Amino acid sequence: xxxLTDASGFPLMVQAFEGNKxxxxxxxxxxxxxxxxxxxxxxxxxxxxxxxxxxxxxAVEDAGLSFILxxxxxxxxxxxxxxxxxxxxxxxxxxxxxxxxxxxTGAQKARGRRDKVIYYQYRADRGRCTLRSLxxxxxxxxxxxxxxxxxxxxx
Length: 155
What we know:
By secondary structure, the chain is α+β, with helices and mostly antiparallel strands. It contains 6 helices and 6 strands, in the order E-E-H-E-H-E-H-E-H-E-H-H.
């Protein structure tokens, strides 16, 4: 089932799909149906990483739409590393937002890709949770005799 909501979560459209279709393959058809039904020329898709695969990102861009994707990232962004160098020993303020323009190359613009902007937001609670998880994995990596089991760290 595809459910499209407004910013407050109010349902705007529901569409049913066959049972063997992944959510990531239903998003764009729901959006384009809604746009057609309401004569909209532009919408901004807001989704979490579970709903918008890389293929969906390209499909949304190819359709000329913008998107906001909420996701955790596997490594520390350059902007955050730079902030830490500039403010050594200080904690990043909770809620701090880092903005990184990501301009399209000439070849990408020729193919229709627009400039992008990436926003990173630091959350102290998320940082603490990640650190606890890492510490559990490190503890689990050693057997009772203190011998390292590298497979646990590689997960």
